[in-house]
Specification:
Elements: H1 2-33, H2 35-66, H3 69-93, H4 109-137
Helix pairs in contact: 1-2, 1-4, 2-3, 3-4
Length: about 140
Amino acid sequence: MRATYDTVRNIALWFGSVILADCIFSLFYDVRYGPASFRFVFRIAMLFAFPVACLYLPFVLSLSKAGRLWGLVLGGSLIGPASLVIRSLVLSVAGKPPSWDGDGIGLGLGAALIFALFIGCLASTLYVIIFKSVGRLT
């Protein structure tokens, strides 16, 4: 029963960390471009961050149990950019317009990789900090 509780707690902590990291990332745009940009950036960032967080969840659970938390930060930082590169390669092989250069209005792949690195690093670092502090409380 305790293992089930710990697993559910770790899942909630992981998704909470992803949402919190996305909010912090979106607040940077809110300060620069106004409150309407927060909702837009939050929605777009969650569109990409949530599926990647779901894919990374088994690694989060196994690395948390093993106690390799700094490996979790490294993996969490790199999973977002790696998934964007794989997505762009699949789209280019399928004959879709490549997302390497952006669309003239949006950002190119380089900026998207940096943003994904930022959100992944922030989410995994927040997870480790919260995981350690919750572990001390129980």
